[in-house]
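DM from R.C. (forwarded with permission)

"hey, sorry to bug you on a friday — could you get me a structure for this? deadline for the figure draft is monday and I only need the backbone to look sensible"
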Amino acid sequence: MATLSVEIVTGERVIYQDSGVEMVVAPGAEGTLGILPSHASLISLLDAGELRIKKGGREEQFVVFGGFIEVAYNRVIILADIAERVSEIDLERAERAFEHARERLEQRESPEDVRRARAARQRAEVRLRAGRRHRASGAPRI
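My reply, with the result:
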């Protein structure tokens, strides 16, 4: 049976690298992408959201914020602006970041401040949603 080789990379480090992967589900800019072995080649922008990797009956979850995904010859490369394992999300910190972004949006100092506050709020929302779902599933926190 064919499988995928998957790599998640940011500007700082390699977050994940493995082969034998059965499926990747990624937040594409135009909607969710489901990648199985023998998938057609593609390059797509990534949106902020959850990325799931299924291998051997297990699923690893990540959050990504922007970047690109490239699929070719059963190899998936994710070049993310920001990526982190869901199991490593600090919910308390994400809640503080969400509140801070909300307060900044209320101040509306400049268009640039509003843009940055909206982006920060979106990142905090994605982290909170993924982290809460992960904790509710009873999965161990690393």
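R.C.: lifesaver. The helical segments are 91-107, 111-136.
me: no worries. The first helix runs from residue 91 to 107.
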